[in-house]
Write the structure tokens for this entry.
Amino acid sequence: MKIHQLRALVEIAATGSINGAARRLHVTQPAVTKAVRDLEDECGVRLLERNPWGVVPTAEGAALLQRARTVVRELERAGKTSRTSRAIAPASS
Amino acid sequence: MKIHQLRALVEIAATGSINGAARRLHVTQPAVTKAVRDLEDECGVRLLERNPWGVVPTAEGAALLQRARTVVRELERAGKTSRTSRAIAPASS
DNA sequence: CGGGCTTACGGTGTGCGTAAATATC
DNA sequence: GATATTTACGCACACCGTAAGCCCG
């Protein structure tokens, strides 16, 4: 269960395609494919339904997607918090 | 901003020492030291106050700690969700 | 001396990119 | 032929463990 895997899932859902997710994540398609595949392999569930025109989350994928969104969002906030701390830190003489 | 770094921060705060965190995380002390150091280096803030008898989170460390706890907790829930999906998935003929 | 943190060094594993293959329209 | 996904291969980076050093009681 790695972050980049959850991020991949989130972006795939957001764009409706692995290609689009790859663009957003600034990585190549195979990287995203492997990320979700590892995730599916890890939990033993098909997270995406592969269609010729793209992909759609399965019910299980959608369920995990909600969790993934929260994790990514909170991680984002953590990064923001660290930046804020960086701003107020210099005053801690 | 990696998960294991946040996890390290959480466990350090929980145990009050890098040594204790290492034990909980089933890794060695240097690994934990480097994890928090990388985190500090990344956000440019001293997260821990090093004392001879152990370490104590700084104000900035405490702030990030709250976020870190949330991230770790949510990630935990994500893993649990995947297990649940695994349980209900086989019925999706 | 003992306990705890840090630094340096080497190995191993993982994630990424490139290249090639398959399927649909 | 174009688009989208998947698989295979090789590489670079990051994490971890071991070993050695430093500080304080």
In short: Chain A has four helices and two strands. Residues 17-19, 29-30, 33-34, 37, 50, 52-55 of chain A lie near DNA strand D (CB under 10 Å from a C1'). Residues 3-88 of chain A form a domain with the Arc Repressor Mutant, subunit A fold (CATH 1.10.10.10). The beta strands of chain A are 48-51, 54-57.
